[in-house]
Amino acid sequence: MSRQSHAPTDPHPHLHGDTHPHGDTRRHPYRRRTALTAAVLLLPLAAACGGGKAGGERPGSAEVRVEQPVTGVRWNVESVTVGGAVQEAPAGAYVEVEDGRATGDYGCNHFTAKAAVQGDRVRFSDARSTRMACGKQPMAFERTLAATLADGTLTAEVDGATLTLGTADGDQVRLTRTTASD
């Protein structure tokens, strides 16, 4: 095996792109060290990003929960809870969100509104409704539902066939997915 000779004043000839005595080229000896340092520093970050729940009971479990969409579904209104008081919805109350618009029935009157959905947040605005007169109980529910839906940005949590819309004050609208047989 032949060796290249280097000037005695150069203690690290392999830093200059010369062939190392063992035959490998070491133009960038710090590249390997930098790569290892980066891997050591990024490993905890990668573990933190992948260590959350994926719908399972513990990090890394195999269960993955697929989020159900809020849009494109007709949701029957079941109840509204305001200040801890639950009001059951009259038959026919529903909400449907599609293409930036919401349509539905408060329990007596039909309504339309603008709807902005971003992730698990929903915001209704510019609501307009018909003005039919109904019994005292449906009208009271209607006012409560309309006020709750218009109460700023709502959280939207879908769990199976149930959608819960929540206000910042803890009030909630509970809805269920309409099935094809409904």
Arrangement of strands in the largest sheet: 1-3-4-5-6-7-8-9
- Sheet bearing the most strands, described? 8 strands, antiparallel, barrel
Order of helices and strands: HEEEEEEHEEE
- Rg (CA only): 31 Å
Structural class: alpha+beta
Count of runs of 4 or more consecutive helical residues = 2
**Fraction of helical residues:** 10-25%
Shape: globular
Q: Tell me the fraction of residues in β-strands, as a range.
A: 25-35%
Low-confidence stretches: 12-20, 30-66
Q: Span from first to last CA?
A: 85 Å
What does this structure look like?
- This protein has 182 residues and is an alpha+beta fold.
- It is 20% helix and 32% strand.
- The chain contains two helices and nine strands.
- The protein has an eight-stranded antiparallel β-barrel with strand order 1-3-4-5-6-7-8-9.
- Strand 4 and strand 5 form a beta hairpin.
- The longest helix has 22 residues, at 29-50.
- 18% of the residues are buried.
- The model is unreliable at 12-20 and 30-66 (pLDDT under 50).
